[in-house]
TrEMBL record:
InterPro entries: 2Fe-2S_ferredoxin-like_sf (IPR036010), 2Fe-2S_ferredoxin-type (IPR001041), Adrenodoxin-like (IPR001055), Beta-grasp_dom_sf (IPR012675). Keywords: 2Fe-2S, Iron, Iron-sulfur, Metal-binding. This is 2Fe-2S iron-sulfur cluster-binding protein. Belongs to the adrenodoxin/putidaredoxin family. Residues 2-105 form the 2Fe-2S ferredoxin-type domain. It comes from the Bacteria.
Length: 106
């Protein structure tokens, strides 16, 4: 099971193991990670699961589709590595991925 390092806006790190095929959002919600709300349940319709993929890991994550790209226009403090964590699904190659949370989802 891949390991995810969730980094809070304040710099605290929480480690979570999750099944391959699980979204990063679901792994966060299932493990009580503050900063990932996932209010729409992973439907790519609310942007409350906004996160930043660590630059070292961007190449191992699929590109966002047009729906996700449009939703990313709604997030606070977007960055080049911004993603909706409900649209990033774990693979074995993502073992050790670092995901940072923004200061706020609103």
């Amino acid at each position: 099971m891949p390991l995810i390092f969730f980094k809070s806006h304040g710099g605290e790190i929480q480690e979570v193991h999750a099944e391959v095929g699980t979204s990063i959002m679901q792994a966060a919600v299932d493990n009580g990670i503050d900063g990932i709300l996932g209010e729409c349940g992973g439907c790519c319709s609310c942007a409350t699961c906004h996160c930043y993929i660590d630059p070292a890991w961007v190449a191992k994550v699929d590109e966002p589709d047009s729906t996700e790209t449009e939703m990313l226009d709604c997030v606070l403090e977007p960055q080049e590595t911004s993603r909706l964590s409900c649209q990033v699904f774990l693979t074995e190659e993502m073992d050790g991925i670092v995901v940072a949370m923004p200061e706020s989802q609103y």
